[in-house]
Amino acid sequence: MRWHASALVMAAVVLEAAICQAQTTIVQDSFTASDGTALVGRSPDVDLPGSMYVAHGGAWERDIVGGNATLGADAGLDLSIASAGSYTKPTTMTISATINLGTVGGSDFSFRGIGLGFNSTLVDPNAYPTGDALSFQHFTGLVVNPSGSVRLYGYGDYEGTLVANTTVDTVIGSFATPGGNHSVRYTVDTTTGGISNIYLDSAAVTAPSTTLFTDAATAYAGFNAQSNSGGSLGKVDNFTLYDGIPPLFPVGDFDHNGSVDLTDYGILKSHWFQTVPGGTAGDIDGDGFVNISDFAAFKLAYQGGGGTGLAVPTPEPTTMILAIAALPMFLFARRRRLLRRPQ
Ligand SMILES: [Ca+2]
Ligand SMILES: [Ca+2]
Ligand SMILES: [Ca+2]
Questions:
Q1: Whether 153 contacts 169, CB under 8 Å
Q2: Cα–Cα distances in Å, from 225 out to 130, 134, 222, 235, 280?
Q3: Which residue has the higher pLDDT, 49 or 291?
Q4: How many structural domains compose the chain?
Q5: Separation of 171 CA from ligand 1 center, angstroms?
Q6: At which of 243, 276, 297 does a domain end?
Q7: What is the mean predicted confidence (pLDDT) over 167-193?
């Protein structure tokens, strides 16, 4: 009997490890640093062992301005994501970022705009200028054009002229308003080279059939900018590469604005003890009913999973009422702490 209990615990541990593995953040950078901090050679906030951004393209601006990675007219930045040490490069990866075209302009074609994706190599000894490949030269990924259209672009081999028969260039979606911040996210499978789960500002977009995203084509992960005018600047923020396919929104983010806050608590509270569509409106555990287990999960999500602060209440009516009554005070105290924290 004891053996069975141990086996069950082991199975639970393995399952939990598998779930965690499927959602691991392997690279994340929110570019919090002083204005002017160099991006080249920078380690992201969440980093692969020893990897740093490597520049390619022209010697245009690549630094941090206002908490964003800022790129000039032909500038690319990438990280090697090759297996190293205890880290093994995943075969299924999800890449996401917030992009802002800024003053990146010109007519739409293939790589013009801001690209989020992968490079097979960064430096081409045959490129001009020698040893410094153009930002898009070996790029495979999605490019947001100046008009807001989004293209799947691949194998940008450039030796003075585009090698058309090696280039894939397909419009897959668009942003109605090109200006301002936009989120781009998609998943690649290096065993098939396919792309899936494309989201533009959290709206799902039909993924085209492709075999572009091979292991070789995804040697580096990063972003680039290409404009028809010198001095133009585009911005990238919240650059993230996941192992596998993580949830589209954080746990507890009921209004899908990307953060877990008092508004989400209000949604949970207003649906307290109500039947709702599974996984929405305060129902975190997906059973279609908003109750104490959802509240407990929300509390953990709000605390960032740390589990400190309020004790998890037991599911008794009086405790539940007290817990719900106490949550705003707890949230308020947390917000005050956050506000006091020096930026
Ligand atoms: Ca930022
Ligand atoms: Ca929210
Ligand atoms: Ca529930």
A1: yes
A2: 20, 10, 11, 9, 37
A3: 291
A4: 2
A5: 28
A6: 243
A7: 94
For residue 18, how far is its CA from the centre of ligand 3 (angstroms)? Answer: 23
Q: Both 220 and 120 in a single domain?
A: yes
pLDDT at residue number 235: 97
Q: Judge whether 267 lies within some domain.
A: yes
Please indicate whether residue 174 or residue 168 has the higher confidence score (pLDDT): 174
Number of the ligand closest to the Cα of 70: 1
Single-letter amino acid code for the residue at 37? T
Confidence (pLDDT) at 60: 86
Residue 48 C-alpha to ligand 2 middle, in angstroms? 29
The reply to whether 150 and 213 lie within a common domain is: yes
Contacts of 266-271 with C-beta under 8 Å, sequence gap 24+, read 268/294, 268/295, 268/298, 269/324
The angle at the Cα of 79, spanning 73 to 82, to the nearest 5 degrees, equals 145
Percentage with pLDDT > 70 across the chain: 76
Closest CA to 183 of 97, 266, 302: 97
Ligand 2 centroid, distance to 282 Cα (angstroms): 11
* Amino acid symbol at 147: S
For residue 99, the enclosing domain spans: 24-243
CATH assignment of the domain containing 151:
2.60.120.200
Which ligand ends up closest to the CA of 37?
1
Instruction: Find the mean pLDDT for residues 226-252.
Output: 90
* Strands of the 113-119 sheet, one edge to the other: 54-57, 74-80, 220-226, 113-119, 139-144, 149-154, 168-174
One domain, residues 286 and 190: no
Of residues 33, 30, 62, the one with CA closest to residue 46: 30
Ligand number nearest CA of 282 is 3
Same domain, 48 and 170: yes
- Tokens 């209000």 -> residue: 266
190, 210, 243 - which closes a domain: 243
206, part of any domain: yes
What pLDDT is recorded for position 190? 96
For the chain, percent of residues with pLDDT exceeding 90:
54
User: In this structure, is residue 13 part of a structural domain?
Assistant: no
Ligand nearest to the CA of 274: 3
Residues 32 and 177 in one domain: yes
Torsion angle (degrees, nearest 10) of CA 272, 278, 281, 285: 70
